[in-house]
Design brief:
The chain is mainly alpha-helical. It is built from 17 helices and no strands. The relative contact order is 0.16.
């Protein structure tokens, strides 16, 4: 097999991965703790919060593809995506502070409005631009499939490390300094790290990105000027994009449901300190899985690695459910650890997979939509997390959650059991089924053969 050209050094890969620190300081703080901040600190109704979070997602479907299209149309000395990644972080940091700065002396209506405005702004505008840009860079800084997988490993290693730090220190930091101070600290760190990341690598020249590609006869006709509508039409024609979008939503819906974890350990198991141990048991094995992914993908390819991996993750999620129902905490740690090792490859090679899906569109349509294509990552993160967090709010309200009660009703405890144990298991099974149909590597190989390569 011919050796692919290398484009990146170790420092470039580390710098790229560090770009996830900023997004996950925000995302980790909000997905893990914002609901409990709004209910227990601000005193808002979880059902209303959940509804507003889901309504906010009406804006996201458009803005994800919009910013992807804007990246595709950008031509600057810094490249296509890097300017968007750099400047959008300013808005992310400002909005993060504002989310945890809801005034105490105003009406509940004003508190809901404050939360909603800044929640929409950070998700639909600033985080969207930042995350779509970072994701698109996988296809813009290297054409080497192995390096794209390695970028995913470094990227999600930083995701796991950042999420682990946030989830294990969030409660203690807030108890010591208050949520607003924590948000300010995270916002400043995020801005600094994001800036360093942007300048740690460069995008490939456009002529290099366009070269050495096989385009089918379908793509030989002249193309119209790229705009939001034309980009959407091309995206929805790519069945692999739709499958990947659905998978991302399911993955992050499961992650969003983790907002129930702090409630589950506090009220169902009677010890909020178990939450930190559980999060460590989730994330450390994930790092092991990430480290093994490049060699596994090299040997088995993206398709088999992800399909078999998520099938295993689903089985071990079942073990977590059994352990949780029996109340055996050590076995719960084993179940989540093994599940996350198996699920890690899709986390690591997801961007390489999307880059392959983008290549499929180029081979079929003759136009590069790297920014628009990677919108499925950002959309999946936000829609999935919002639906998961929103579901937490709805079911907490339906179960009669009362922040003033040390012991919640059995209905509320049952709701938390479904959210924390059963919902992720159901979602993992659906993701495994979707993985079965994601045969983009084979499709690209068939297009190459048809083009005579």
């Amino acid at each position: 097999m011919e050796q692919e050209k290398k484009y990146l050094k170790l420092g470039n890969k580390i710098g790229y991965g560090a770009g996830e620190v900023s997004g996950n300081l925000f995302n980790g703080l909000v997905s893990n703790f914002y609901m409990i901040f709004l209910t227990n600190t601000v005193g808002l109704n979880p059902g209303i919060i959940g509804t507003l979070m889901v309504i906010s997602k009406l804006f996201d479907g458009v803005t994800d593809v919009f910013f992807g299209t804007m990246i595709d149309k950008t031509h600057s000395k810094m490249g296509r995506a890097r300017p968007w990644m750099l400047f959008s972080q300013i808005g992310v940091s400002i909005c993060l502070v504002m989310l945890f700065s809801i005034p105490a002396g105003v009406s509940d209506v004003m508190k809901y409005a404050w939360f909603f405005v800044f929640y929409v702004a950070i998700n639909a505008i600033f985080y969207t631009a930042n995350n779509v840009a970072l994701s698109a860079l996988t296809a813009l800084i290297t054409k080497n499939t192995g390096e794209r997988v390695e970028l995913g490993v470094f990227r999600f290693a930083f995701v796991m490390l950042t999420q682990m730090i946030v989830s294990t220190t969030g409660v203690s930091l807030s108890n010591a300094f208050g949520w607003q101070t924590v948000a300010i600290l995270f916002a400043i760190i995020a801005l600094i790290v994001n800036t360093i990341s942007v300048f740690s690598f460069k995008e490939l020249p456009e002529e290099m990105l366009m070269s050495e590609e096989n385009i089918s006869a379908v793509a030989e006709k002249p193309k119209a000027e790229l705009n939001l509508l034309s980009a959407l039409k091309i995206l929805v024609k790519n069945k692999f994009y739709i499958i990947m979008l659905a998978m991302n939503i399911m993955v992050y819906l499961a992650a969003g449901a983790m907002g129930a974890a702090i409630y589950y350990f506090t009220y169902n198991m009677g010890d909020e300190n178990l939450y930190s141990f559980f999060m460590i048991a989730m994330m450390l094995p994930t790092l092991l899985g990430l480290a093994l992914t490049p060699q596994i993908v090299k040997k088995f390819g993206l398709y088999r690695t992800n399909l078999i991996g998520f099938a295993g993750a689903t089985v071990f999620r079942g073990l977590l459910v059994v352990a949780g129902m029996l109340g055996i905490f050590p076995l719960m740690l084993v179940g989540i650890g093994l599940s996350n090792i198996c699920a890690a490859p899709l986390t690591a090679d997801g961007n390489a997979l999307i880059a392959a899906i983008s290549d499929y569109t180029y081979k079929k349509e003759g136009i590069r939509l790297d920014g628009s294509m990677f919108s499925c990552t950002s959309m999946g993160v936000k829609v999935g997390n919002a639906l998961g967090t929103g579901m937490c709010g709805w079911l907490l309200a339906a179960g009669g959650f009362d922040k003033d009660l040390a012991v919640q009703s059995q209905t509320c405890l049952n709701m938390l059991t479904f959210l924390f144990l059963w919902l992720p298991l159901i979602l993992y099974f659906i993701i495994t089924v979707l993985n079965y149909f994601l045969k983009v590597e084979q499709a690209n190989k068939e297009l190459d053969e048809a083009a005579g390569k």
